[in-house]
Design a protein that fits this description.
- This protein has 63 residues and is mainly alpha-helical.
- It has a domain at 1-25.
- The protein contains 2 helices and 2 strands.
- The chain has helices at 3-25, 38-59; strands at 29-31, 34-36.
- A two-stranded antiparallel ribbon has the order 1-2.
- The protein is elongated.
């Protein structure tokens, strides 16, 4: 894998992990006085983990 691909997969995975931890521990997020619901993290987790997986899968050598 190329270094940029490895970094991208790692960053997307850490973001997905952060959203997963927020859902598991029920951390509250307030941005400018607006409460962000937990279901928003569920959607973000699916998106970021999917992107990380697709990028990782695309960069693997063909067998």
């Amino acid at each position: 894998m190329k270094p940029f691909t490895i970094m991208s997969v790692a960053i997307l995975s850490f973001i997905a992990l952060g959203h997963l931890l927020r859902m598991l521990f029920g951390w509250e997020v307030i941005i400018n006085g607006v409460h962000i619901p937990l279901w928003a993290s569920a959607i973000a987790f699916v998106i970021f983990s999917g992107l990380a997986y697709m990028l990782w899968r695309e960069s693997r050598p063909n067998k």
